[in-house]
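Lecture 7 notes. Example A: sequence first, then its C-alpha coordinates.
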Amino acid sequence: MVILNKIESKFKALKHEKEFAFPQIKHKNIYLFSIPTFGNIGDLAIVEAERKFLNDNYSDWNLILIPDYATNKAVKFIKENINNEDLILIHGGGM
Protein backbone atom coordinates (compact mmCIF):
# COMPACT_ATOMS: atom_id res chain seq x y z
CA MET A 1 0.00 0.00 0.00
CA VAL A 2 2.95 2.31 0.61
CA ILE A 3 3.92 2.10 -3.07
CA LEU A 4 0.39 2.92 -4.20
CA ASN A 5 0.30 5.93 -1.85
CA LYS A 6 3.59 7.14 -3.35
CA ILE A 7 2.21 6.73 -6.86
CA GLU A 8 -0.97 8.60 -6.02
CA SER A 9 0.91 11.48 -4.40
CA LYS A 10 3.10 11.90 -7.51
CA PHE A 11 0.05 12.74 -9.58
CA LYS A 12 -1.93 14.88 -7.11
CA ALA A 13 -0.11 17.96 -8.44
CA LEU A 14 -1.63 17.32 -11.87
CA LYS A 15 -5.08 18.60 -10.93
CA HIS A 16 -5.42 21.82 -12.93
CA GLU A 17 -4.33 22.56 -16.49
CA LYS A 18 -3.05 26.00 -15.53
CA GLU A 19 -0.46 24.24 -13.35
CA PHE A 20 0.81 22.13 -16.24
CA ALA A 21 3.85 23.45 -18.05
CA PHE A 22 6.12 21.66 -20.47
CA PRO A 23 9.67 21.04 -19.30
CA GLN A 24 12.59 22.17 -21.38
CA ILE A 25 12.50 20.31 -24.67
CA LYS A 26 15.57 18.28 -25.58
CA HIS A 27 16.64 16.41 -28.68
CA LYS A 28 14.87 13.10 -27.96
CA ASN A 29 11.47 13.35 -26.28
CA ILE A 30 8.85 10.81 -25.27
CA TYR A 31 5.39 12.32 -24.85
CA LEU A 32 3.20 10.01 -22.74
CA PHE A 33 -0.42 11.16 -23.11
CA SER A 34 -3.52 10.61 -20.96
CA ILE A 35 -1.87 10.37 -17.56
CA PRO A 36 -4.87 9.93 -15.23
CA THR A 37 -5.57 12.54 -12.58
CA PHE A 38 -8.80 11.07 -11.24
CA GLY A 39 -7.23 8.92 -8.52
CA ASN A 40 -7.80 5.38 -9.85
CA ILE A 41 -5.01 3.49 -8.11
CA GLY A 42 -4.83 0.82 -10.83
CA ASP A 43 -4.30 3.37 -13.60
CA LEU A 44 -1.74 5.20 -11.47
CA ALA A 45 0.15 1.92 -10.93
CA ILE A 46 0.17 1.35 -14.71
CA VAL A 47 1.60 4.85 -15.22
CA GLU A 48 4.33 4.13 -12.68
CA ALA A 49 5.21 0.89 -14.52
CA GLU A 50 5.24 2.73 -17.87
CA ARG A 51 7.45 5.47 -16.41
CA LYS A 52 9.88 2.92 -14.96
CA PHE A 53 10.01 0.93 -18.23
CA LEU A 54 10.65 4.06 -20.30
CA ASN A 55 13.27 5.43 -17.89
CA ASP A 56 15.04 2.05 -17.77
CA ASN A 57 15.01 1.51 -21.54
CA TYR A 58 15.22 5.09 -22.84
CA SER A 59 17.32 6.70 -20.13
CA ASP A 60 18.84 9.27 -22.50
CA TRP A 61 15.40 10.49 -23.60
CA ASN A 62 13.32 13.26 -22.04
CA LEU A 63 10.09 11.72 -20.67
CA ILE A 64 7.16 14.15 -20.64
CA LEU A 65 4.03 12.98 -18.80
CA ILE A 66 0.94 14.73 -20.14
CA PRO A 67 -2.08 14.66 -17.82
CA ASP A 68 -5.49 13.77 -19.21
CA TYR A 69 -6.80 17.35 -18.89
CA ALA A 70 -3.88 18.88 -20.84
CA THR A 71 -4.33 17.05 -24.14
CA ASN A 72 -5.39 20.09 -26.19
CA LYS A 73 -2.57 22.21 -24.80
CA ALA A 74 -0.09 19.39 -25.46
CA VAL A 75 -1.18 18.82 -29.06
CA LYS A 76 -0.69 22.50 -29.86
CA PHE A 77 2.71 22.47 -28.18
CA ILE A 78 3.87 19.28 -29.89
CA LYS A 79 2.81 20.52 -33.34
CA GLU A 80 5.24 23.41 -32.89
CA ASN A 81 8.08 21.48 -31.25
CA ILE A 82 8.14 17.88 -32.45
CA ASN A 83 11.19 16.47 -34.19
CA ASN A 84 11.82 13.24 -36.14
CA GLU A 85 13.25 11.39 -33.12
CA ASP A 86 10.34 12.06 -30.75
CA LEU A 87 7.93 9.33 -29.65
CA ILE A 88 4.24 9.89 -28.87
CA LEU A 89 2.67 7.27 -26.58
CA ILE A 90 -0.71 6.90 -24.89
CA HIS A 91 -1.20 5.60 -21.34
CA GLY A 92 -2.18 1.94 -21.33
CA GLY A 93 -4.90 2.01 -18.68
CA GLY A 94 -8.63 2.27 -19.29
CA MET A 95 -9.84 5.78 -19.86
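Example B, a different protein, same format:
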Amino acid sequence: MFPTTKGTQLEVRNYERVLREAGERAGIHIHPHQLRNNFAKYYILNNGSYIKTYEYVADETVGRLI
Protein backbone atom coordinates (compact mmCIF):
# COMPACT_ATOMS: atom_id res chain seq x y z
CA MET A 1 0.00 0.00 0.00
CA PHE A 2 2.67 2.52 1.03
CA PRO A 3 6.01 2.39 -0.78
CA THR A 4 9.21 2.90 1.17
CA THR A 5 12.02 5.23 0.16
CA LYS A 6 13.63 2.20 -1.50
CA GLY A 7 10.52 1.56 -3.60
CA THR A 8 9.57 -1.62 -1.76
CA GLN A 9 6.26 -2.16 -0.04
CA LEU A 10 5.99 -1.14 3.60
CA GLU A 11 5.16 -4.10 5.83
CA VAL A 12 2.23 -3.79 8.21
CA ARG A 13 4.31 -4.29 11.36
CA ASN A 14 6.70 -1.52 10.27
CA TYR A 15 3.80 0.84 9.55
CA GLU A 16 2.34 0.12 12.99
CA ARG A 17 5.74 0.74 14.61
CA VAL A 18 6.23 4.07 12.79
CA LEU A 19 2.70 5.16 13.72
CA ARG A 20 3.20 4.17 17.37
CA GLU A 21 6.51 6.07 17.53
CA ALA A 22 4.94 9.16 15.98
CA GLY A 23 2.14 8.96 18.53
CA GLU A 24 4.64 8.69 21.37
CA ARG A 25 6.46 11.78 20.10
CA ALA A 26 3.13 13.62 19.97
CA GLY A 27 2.15 12.36 23.40
CA ILE A 28 -0.85 10.31 22.23
CA HIS A 29 -1.68 6.61 21.98
CA ILE A 30 -2.65 5.74 18.40
CA HIS A 31 -3.18 2.53 16.45
CA PRO A 32 -4.02 1.97 12.75
CA HIS A 33 -7.42 0.54 13.68
CA GLN A 34 -8.28 3.81 15.44
CA LEU A 35 -7.47 5.76 12.28
CA ARG A 36 -9.74 3.52 10.19
CA ASN A 37 -12.59 3.74 12.68
CA ASN A 38 -12.31 7.51 13.05
CA PHE A 39 -12.24 7.98 9.28
CA ALA A 40 -15.38 5.87 8.89
CA LYS A 41 -17.18 7.56 11.77
CA TYR A 42 -16.52 11.11 10.60
CA TYR A 43 -17.20 10.22 6.96
CA ILE A 44 -20.66 8.97 7.94
CA LEU A 45 -21.29 11.91 10.29
CA ASN A 46 -20.54 14.24 7.37
CA ASN A 47 -23.22 12.62 5.19
CA GLY A 48 -21.00 9.94 3.69
CA SER A 49 -22.63 6.84 2.28
CA TYR A 50 -22.74 3.71 4.43
CA ILE A 51 -22.09 1.63 1.32
CA LYS A 52 -19.03 3.67 0.37
CA THR A 53 -17.81 3.58 3.96
CA TYR A 54 -18.03 -0.20 3.91
CA GLU A 55 -16.07 -0.26 0.65
CA TYR A 56 -13.40 2.07 2.05
CA VAL A 57 -12.78 0.29 5.32
CA ALA A 58 -13.72 -3.24 4.18
CA ASP A 59 -15.13 -4.04 7.58
CA GLU A 60 -18.43 -5.68 8.39
CA THR A 61 -18.77 -3.64 11.60
CA VAL A 62 -19.48 -0.25 10.00
CA GLY A 63 -22.90 -0.15 11.67
CA ARG A 64 -21.25 -0.27 15.09
CA LEU A 65 -19.10 2.84 14.51
CA ILE A 66 -21.77 5.33 15.59
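Note on Example B: Residues 31-66 form one domain. The chain has a mean pLDDT of 80.
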